[in-house]
Amino acid sequence: ATPMSVMVGVGKAAEAGVLIRNGQALQTASKITAMILDKTGTITEGAPRVTEVVPVGDMDEASVLRLAATLEQGSEHPLAQAIVESAQDRDIELGEVDGFNSIAGHGVEGRVDDCSLLFGNEKLMRDREISIDAYLEQAQSMAAQARTPMYLASGERLIALIAVADPIKEDSVEAIKRLQNDGIRVVMLTGDNRDTAKAVAEQLGIEEFFAEVLPEDKSSKVAELQQQGEIVGMTGDGINDAPALALADVGFAIGTGTDVAIESADVTLMRGSLHGLADAIAVSRATLRNIR
Ligand code: ADP
Ligand code: MG
After folding, report:
1. Which ligand has an atom closest to residue 105 CA?
2. What number does the ligand 1 atom closest to the CA of 192 have?
3. Which of 172, 217, 235, 250 is the residue whose CA sits 20 to 30 A from 110?
4. Crossing angle of the two packed helices 275-290 and 3-15, in degrees rounded to 10
């Protein structure tokens, strides 16, 4: 395509709220054969809410929620925000946390009221040899409803199961369908557990997904598809997504996401809607079709 036609294409995309960093990105977008979509904050709103608080021992709901929320004050994860907000909604006063530590892709730990607390996913509990078997079925049924179950342990003992739900953006299903209709292989990528990921993928009509992917492994999924011969688009919003966005043939950042993601991407979707992906690809294909 001529420099002039590329400029026109970049301008057209901008009118649709799709900011393309350079002409090369516009041209490569037309060749994308596979699109990897991060789940949390990209496909979903990224604003989870607590749906269930299930105490396991003799503590009540407010007491276990207070412990979890006190611990999560130290975390910036969207899941942590959901827990803290839920406690605030119930007018629960939070305490203080000592020795807070966040375990990437797994959860958090720290001391509250002289209890050693551990809060996070199934993998974390297994790693620390906390017995959760009696509650696995309940957790799986939460996950089957596209919710994310988390376990709270005090010392060696499980004391609660807490679930959150993160609603899918209202236009994600339509936007994903447009990509699939364009002949693009759509793959979902998440750190969340397999059962929750499966339920979300089903609601979206996505057949392929990578679940339980650690933050540092997200970019290797991009490489995996590239090795299969795909021209890979990657769409994400988080700090975790930055290396994958940089490695992808075209990286797309959600405009409402983190600055690091935006800086690592070639394209920014200002409106946060995934429709920007099919819009960008349409402009790109039209630009290369018209002038050759
Ligand atoms: P994602 O951004 O897709 O949720 P992460 O790698 O950040 O992926 O987290 C993976 C999983 O680790 C979460 O689904 C959750 O179960 C657990 N986890 C991570 N951070 C926290 C936290 N602050 N509190 C509780 N659980 C957490
Ligand atoms: Mg995300």
Report:
1. 1
2. 14
3. 217
4. 160
